[in-house]
Design brief:
The complex is a heterotrimer of chains A (95), B (482) and C (483). Chain A is of the alpha+beta class and 95 residues long. Chain A has three helices and three strands. Chain B has an eight-stranded mixed sheet. In chain B, strands 5-4-15 form a three-stranded antiparallel sheet, with no helix packed on it. Chain B has a two-stranded antiparallel ribbon with strand order 3-16. Chain B is elongated. With 483 residues, chain C is α/β, with parallel strands linked by helices. Chain C has a domain of 295 residues: Alpha-Beta Complex (Amidase signature (AS) enzymes). Chain C contains 16 helices and eleven strands. Classes of the chains: A alpha+beta (95), B alpha+beta (482), C alpha/beta (483). Chain C: Its EC number is 6.3.5.7. Chain C: This is Glutamyl-tRNA(Gln) amidotransferase subunit A.
Chain lengths: 95, 482, 483
């Protein structure tokens, strides 16, 4: 099943990736080549097989509930693109 | 047409852990922006989450309290979407395998009857930060202090049929999480937030109508108003030939209306998948046994015990058990005075109107349980009358004495029970009202009743309320008949 | 001095034949002189290196004698280094001076190593040619017109060119082993969970694993000994003691059962690489190993499964690069959506965008079961293959890559062709088992690598086999002409 241009645009939007208008045909073609490779999976019989999310199948360790972090705002915000009064600035969020 | 309202609620309870769910940052309310946002909370590249044990324990406590099945293995998943208050571009939550499965909660309705509300699931997740919209040169400011605060999202079945039931349910959840000590329940600070899924259907119809979700309603009063408003809106819409659309709406308490959140309407595709940075959480039976053993007496159990042990009415028991602090206060008063009914009356009467008047919580009560209990003892042993007790209570509230006894002593409020003294006082009253005595004696039974009250009043005034009313009645009758 | 390998440097420093400062100055000069041909460094941390070297010399004078004390190394540029640009080879991390150190960086610093700088890599570790870096492609010192492999291409080129004795790398689908093979190095990808991922900027969290590239198995053992270990900051880190890798090196190979999977010798493999691989087998037989033909029947499905799982995880892992809290932000965003789309659109390169889009698609509503879940099931089949195979053999051996190092630009327009180069390496990542690549000869003057795979936590066994082989061969000692 090949992706249409509109689907590529939708995926790019979901992933918040700006694509150049001129790149879309090429991107669509490459993605379809990759999906062609991936679709080879569909021929594999996986009935009755449990999905494997982590190779070791270990279980989650729990952390004791204690505050050990200190305020390092100045250091963290020194590398931020835009801050004011300790806040990160972004174009207005409309609710 | 007759309409039936169908409501399901999603309640987000902020768990009162010390640190965040996946980082060791503090979660104190009201800190300077971004001072409680660590590398992990900021979604810095290369950082990884480690799960807070206490958040797991608290979720288990809740699950056990609602008789739910606790998943032996539960899994964290990522909910992917872009928003400036969501630093990683995904929220770590639980989807297919939540920690708490199906359970229920019994709520008490206004008429005192009980209703069982099903709880579909409860899962752990991280809170987002906050966007501040004050004008920063046309920009929004992002504070990530709240990002990563542990939340328990409690999802009810669509078992609720009115706004009042919804409020009763939220109050019951509120009481429960506070009993369990897993959430401070402070709705003004957003510790308990409620999303209401509301739909209507013609009475008798089996299928549900299309629902609208009202986001983030943050007080009991607003829950009731928002739902009532939304129900009305939907009924009017349908009756006018329109259709309810499935959407997210926002309640505006100032205008008392809900409005569509158009910006969130675009089809979201959250692309949930198991979080590869976290492993499955395994809950052992031995751990659950230990948590179960640590559970306090819950509201339902307490209510039943208050009825059985103290003979309180269902209504009184329900009110007193509605918060752990109130119940503890009541029990403390009772243990001092040994009269549960009097204790209940005073706690629910004078004390709660005093607290309401000054907008205080029971923990802030100016009159301690020991003080109130001590005062009730003095009512029981006839040291003071109920009327005088109100004066003593007020004096205790304003700090005019450390104990009821001290107030009684200082103000000379001790009830006079010496019959000689009362008789002497009555003789003076009768002498001063000789004319009325004449009239009384000349009147028939029917009239005498009313006139008798006059003499009691005069006598009590003369004694400044301190004469034992029973004795005054008895002796006065004797003397007038005399 | 630059021809010394890590173990030799350790001995030279211990015997006070030279100081760390002398060695460091000499390598810094060499980097300045030769790296312009290779482009293996993104950042050279000269001041930091000299300060660390002096500190190491002081510790040495005070009587300390840790094996890596004063040894110069460098880090792949996805390990966070406090106060130093950590770019992931991407424009989107422009100006990202990491505010903290990765655990691997901390551990190697604690072991006394001297950090010469940060090494070039495929953008976000996505690639097998090191051509997708924002900082330009890395050249293979064996032939400057060819790729060094990737994604740890900078690490491989720098160590192969004797700019330094060892470097860190990461391996999500072969990113340590494949460049090691193409540049005549030894490189090991440990068991998933053996090396902490804290501070190692994620590509695909359930596959990523850090490890060393060096010239010999012994050098890898020295490095891994310092890098490995439990870390409470990484939930997927394994709480298990680290084996003594140096002690494991000297075990005789007598009775070692080596499995040759028939699927590793099928169509697509350069016949000359197959010959070199079989020659290694003959050498190991002489050392007492026995050989058995085995099968890993699901190997062929690994590429499609990998190219679902890795992009899916990456699509989510890379959402945090949004121009808000760090890194690149587009000029004058018109609104929030514009901020996201242009920062990410301009900040990420073509291959990263492709993989984010593949992953986004694979996780999207209606496709999750057919793609992501299906791939996870195949992942289990692949793991099961290894579990069965390791019932019969101790180590699996095969070629690391199907082809020799290719010409720069040759596959950059055809991602699918480049993906197929990962065929022999990605199964170890999907299963989480350790894998090692070691030099196995040359074809047309280009290095050939052979890969060894072992059961979980048997890094010592891999290093043992490679070390024993390196005691009787000298491929690993060959240096590229001009370096």
């Amino acid at each position: 099943m090949a992706l249409e241009r509109s689907e590529v645009e939708k995926i790019a939007h979901l992933a918040r990736l700006g694509l150049n208008e001129g790149d879309i045909p090429r991107t669509t073609e490459t993605l379809n080549n990759i999906l062609g490779l991936i679709d080879q999976m569909q021929a594999v019989d996986t009935s009755g097989i449990e999905p494997l999310a982590h190779p070791l199948e270990a279980t989650q360790r729990l952390r004791a509930d204690a505050v050990t972090e200190e305020n390092r705002r100045a250091a963290y915000q020194a590398i931020a693109p835009a801050v004011e009064n300790g806040l990160y600035l972004v174009p207005k969020v409309i609710e | 047409m007759q309409w039936e309202t169908v409501i399901g609620l999603e309640i987000h309870a902020q768990l009162s852990t010390q640190s965040k769910i996946f980082s060791a940052s503090a979660i104190a309310f009201g800190a300077e922006p971004n001072t409680q946002a660590s590398l992990i909370d900021l979604g810095m590249p290369g950082t990884l989450p480690v799960l807070n044990a206490e958040a797991v324990r608290m979720a288990c406590k809740f699950g056990l309290a609602i008789d739910a099945e606790i998943a032996g293995k539960n899994i964290f998943a990522r909910k992917n979407y872009f928003y400036p208050d969501l630093p990683k571009g995904y929220q770590t939550s639980q989807m297919d395998d939540p920690i708490v499965g199906k359970g229920f909660l019994d709520i008490t309705l206004e008429d005192g009857s009980q209703k069982r509300i099903g709880i579909t699931r409860a899962h752990l997740e991280e809170d987002a930060g906050k966007s501040l919209h004050e004008d920063f040169h046309g920009m929004s400011g992002i504070d990530l202090n709240r990002a990563g605060t542990p939340l328990l999202e409690i999802v009810s079945e669509p078992d609720i049929r009115s706004a009042k039931e919804a409020v009763a349910y939220v109050k019951a959840i509120h009481a429960l999480v506070r009993y369990l000590g897993i959430c401070d329940g402070n709705m003004a600070e957003g510790s308990l937030r409620c999303d209401c899924n509301v739909s209507v259907r013609p009475v008798g119809q089996a299928e549900y109508g299309t629902r609208a979700e009202i986001k983030n309603v943050n007080s009991f009063r607003f829950i009731e108003k928002a739902i009532n408003h939304e129900v009305q809106r939907q009924i009017e819409l349908i009756e006018d030939g329109g259709k309810v659309v499935q959407e997210t709406r926002l309640y505006d308490p100032n205008k008392d209306q809900t409005r569509s959140m158009r910006s969130k309407e675009e089809a979201n595709d959250y692309r949930y998948f198991p979080c590869p940075d976290l492993l499955p959480v395994i809950i052992e039976q031995s751990f659950l046994d230990e948590v179960r053993a640590s559970l306090p007496e819950l509201p339902v159990q307490k209510r039943a015990r208050f009825e059985a042990e103290f003979g309180l009415s269902a209504y009184d028991a329900d009110v007193l058990a509605s918060s752990r602090e109130l119940a503890d206060y009541f029990e403390a008063v009772n243990s001092v005075c040994g009269d549960a009914k009097l204790a209940a009356n005073w706690v629910m009467g004078e004390l709660s109107s005093l607290l309401n008047k000054d907008n205080l919580e029971i923990q802030q009560s100016p009159v301690s349980a020991a003080q109130l209990g001590g005062m009730i003892q003095r009512i029981k042993d006839n040291t003071i009358s109920g009327k005088i007790a109100k004066m003593v209570f007020e004096a205790l509230a304003t700090g005019e004495g450390a104990t009821a006894d001290e107030v009684i002593e200082k103000k000379g409020l001790k009830q006079v029970t010496d019959s000689g003294a009362i008789e002497k006082m009555l003789d003076e009253v009768l002498a001063a009202n000789a004319e009325q005595v004449e009239q009384y004696r000349a009147s028939d039974e029917a009239k005498r009743g009313k006139m008798f009250g006059f003499f009691v009043g005069q006598a009590m005034r003369a004694s400044k309320g301190k004469a034992n009313p029973g004795q005054v009645n008895e002796l006065l009758k004797k003397k007038l008949e005399g | 001095m630059h021809q010394l390998n890590l173990a030799e440097i350790a001995r030279g420093l211990a015997d006070k034949q030279f100081s760390s400062e002398e060695l460091t100055r000499s390598l810094l000069a060499r980097i300045q002189q030769l790296d312009p041909q290779l482009n293996s460094f993104i950042t050279v941390t000269e001041e930091l290196a000299l300060a660390q070297a002096k500190a190491a010399d002081a510790r040495r004078s005070a009587g300390e004698n840790a094996p890596l004390l004063g040894a110069p190394i460098a880090h792949k540029d996805l390990f966070c280094t406090e106060g130093v640009l950590t770019s992931c080879g991407s424009k989107i991390l422009s100006g990202f001076k990491a505010p903290y150190n990765a655990t691997v960086v901390e551990k190697l610093a604690a072991a006394g190593t001297v950090t010469l700088g940060k090494l070039n890599m495929d953008e976000f570790a996505m690639g097998s040619a090191n051509e997708s870096s924002h900082y330009g492609p890395v050249k293979n010192p064996w032939d400057l017109t060819r790729v060094p492999g990737g994604s740890s291409g900078g690490s491989a080129a720098a160590v192969a060119a004797r700019l330094l004795p060892a470097a860190t790398g990461t391996d999500t689908g072969g990113s340590i082993r494949q460049p090691a093979a193409l540049t005549n190095l030894t490189g090991i990808k440990p068991t998933y969970g053996r090396v902490s991922r804290w501070g190692m900027i994620a590509y695909a969290s359930s596959l990523d694993q850090g490890g060393p590239l060096a010239r010999t198995a012994e050098d890898c053992a020295l490095m891994l000994q310092a890098m490995a270990g439990f870390d409470a900051k990484d939930s997927t880190s394994v709480e298990q003691p680290v084996d003594d890798y140096l002690a494991a090196l000297t075990q005789p190979l007598k009775g070692m059962r080596i499995g040759l999977p028939k699927e590793y010798f099928g169509a697509g493999l350069d016949a000359r690489i197959a010959d070199a691989t079989l020659a290694v087998v003959e050498e190991l037989k002489k050392l007492g190993a026995t050989v058995k033909d085995i099968s890993l029947p699901n190997m062929q499905h690994a590429i499609p499964a990998y190219y679902v799982i890795a992009p899916a995880e990456a699509s989510s892992n890379l959402s945090r690069f949004d121009g808000v809290r760090f890194g690149y932000r587009c000029e004058n965003p018109a609104n929030l959506e514009d901020l996201y789309k242009r920062s990410r659109g301009e900040g990420f390169g073509a291959e990263v965008k492709r993989r984010i889009m593949v992953g986004t698609y694979a996780l999207s509503a209606g496709y999750y079961d057919a793609y992501y879940l299906k791939a996870q099931k195949i992942r289990r089949l692949i793991k099961n293959d290894f579990v069965s195979a390791f019932n019969e053999v101790d180590v699996i051996l095969g070629p690391t890559t199907p082809n020799l190092a290719w010409k720069l630009g040759e596959k950059s327009d055809d991602p699918v062709a480049a993906y197929l180069e990962d065929i022999y390496t990605i199964t170890a990542n999907l299963a989480g088992i350790p894998g090692l690549s070691m030099p196995a000869g040359f074809v047309d003057g280009l290095p050939v690598g052979v890969q060894l795979l072992a059961p979980y936590f048997q890094e010592g066994r891999l290093l043992n086999v490679a070390h024993q082989y390196q005691q009787v061969t000298d491929w690993h000692t060959r240096a590229p002409a001009g370096f």
